[in-house]
Design a protein that fits this description.
Blueprint: H1 13-23, H2 30-40, H3 43-56, H4 68-80, E1 83-86, E2 107-111, H5 113-116, E3 120-124, H6 131-146, E4 150-153, H7 159-166, E5 172-175, H8 189-197, E6 201-204, H9 216-227, E7 230-233, H10 241-251, E8 255-258, H11 269-276, E9 280-281, H12 285-292, H13 318-327, E10 333-334, H14 335-342, H15 346-358, E11 362-365, E12 369-372
Parallel strand pairs: 3-4, 3-7, 4-5, 5-6, 7-8, 8-9
Antiparallel strand pairs: 1-2, 2-6, 10-12, 11-12
Length: about 375
């Protein structure tokens, strides 16, 4: 059941440092990283352009650019913990994760790399889970593991830890919201060590020493759905983080499964709503297996190329910058619409958006939408 990417990547040591410097620099996220590398040909060339881009975008002060020594130190500290920083296409980088629009350019992978390459099913749910929910999560994880799937989850209390524990021997992957040395919740550090020692794995896009903040958990949730063929929501109240995972799964084209519950239990309100919205009603592992089997054999085409956009080969004129910025506001607008309304080339619009983002003035949304901060 291995899923092999259609093409492989292997960064040199110098490229890995350049990539790490770029993604660790201020105002550079996964989408911006990809745009910069595609437009300028390499991370090193993009690093050289960062100060000018931020200045043109109206930055009030120079943005911090990660130094060579900082990047080399992070790689060395990771090696001490047996954490490898991998690029999409490298062995150990989950191939399906590389397909999402905001895939981490470098992913910290700890544990057995072959685990990360196997087909995964995400299982998530309430931290304050019911006894019935915990039992169902364990039964589902066991049956899916017996069918050859790796279980991915977020190492949280409740449903997550129940799914991890039952799948330790067959294979499970913890997706972390913080760095590999800042486990949350702290009481699950022993669980993670047991997973690693048993041949399972953990992944994080955050640097070592990064303690998870509230905004990091949604970022983590997109990775849970990103590595998976589909995500099962066992219990989720309204406004639950598990519902964020389901939303990401929908946006990423993943299957969404929801376990029904009593309408009297608020922990089932979110899952029951998901079923009303079209999620697959799930009462046993066969419901999941039957749904994902047709997509198991499809090749995984990695989208990250050196240049898959028009290169930026000219500086936008001042009037073009003004026109594009004037079209932006707090409400998201599509990039294609900006190109049409600004009456300029896509390359110029992308350049101005990069400038604004690197100046900390632009926010990117799903579906190619952007807005001013």
């Amino acid at each position: 059941m291995n899923i092999e990417p259609s093409k492989t990547t292997r960064l040199t040591d110098a490229q890995r440092i350049d990539w790490l410097r770029l993604i660790r620099s201020d105002n550079v996220g996964p989408r911006t990283f990809r745009s910069l590398v595609n437009h300028y040909g390499s991370a090193r060339a993009a690093l050289d352009r960062l100060p000018d881009l931020a200045r043109h975008g109206g930055a009030s002060k120079p943005a911090r650019i990660c130094s060579h020594d900082e990047a080399a130190s992070e790689i060395a500290r990771g090696e001490q913990m047996k954490v490898a920083l991998l690029a999409p296409g490298e062995d150990g980088y989950p191939p399906r994760l590389a397909l999402i629009d905001d895939a981490p350019p470098l992913l910290g992978v700890r544990g057995a790399r072959d685990i990360e390459m196997q087909p995964m099913i995400g299982i998530v749910g309430s931290r304050n889970a019911s006894g019935a929910g915990l039992k169902f999560a364990q039964t589902l994880a066991r049956e899916l593991a017996d069918a050859g799937f790796i279980i991915a989850s977020g190492l949280a209390r409740g449903i997550d830890q129940a799914a991890h524990r039952i799948a330790i021997q067959s294979g499970t992957v913890a997706v972390l919201a913080g760095g590999h040395d800042r486990i949350y919740p702290p009481e699950h550090e022993d669980l993670l060590l047991e997973m690693i020692d048993s041949g399972s794995g953990a992944i994080s896009e955050m640097p070592l020493g990064h303690g998870p903040r509230a905004r990091d958990f949604p970022r983590r949730n997109r990775l849970i759905s990103g590595v998976s063929l589909g995500v099962v929501i066992v219990e989720a109240a309204h406004r639950s983080g598990s519902l964020i995972t389901a939303r990401f799964a929908n946006e990423q084209g993943r299957e969404v499964f929801a376990v029904p519950g009593s309408p009297l239990d608020p922990r089932a309100a979110g899952t029951n709503d998901l079923i009303k919205q079209g999620a697959t009603l799930t009462t046993c592992a066969a419901d999941v297996i039957d749904a994902v089997r047709p997509i198991m054999g499809r090749p995984v085409e990695l989208p990250f190329n050196e240049r898959d956009d028009d290169p930026i080969d000219e500086e936008p004129h001042a009037d073009e910058r003004t026109r594009i910025v004037d079209l932006l506001g707090p409400s998201p607008v599509g990039i294609d619409d900006l190109v049409r309304m600004a009456d300029t080339s896509p390359a110029v619009v992308r350049t101005v958006l990069l400038e604004l983002e690197l100046a900390g003035r632009l926010e990117r949304h799903g579906g190619g939408m952007v807005s001013l901060v």
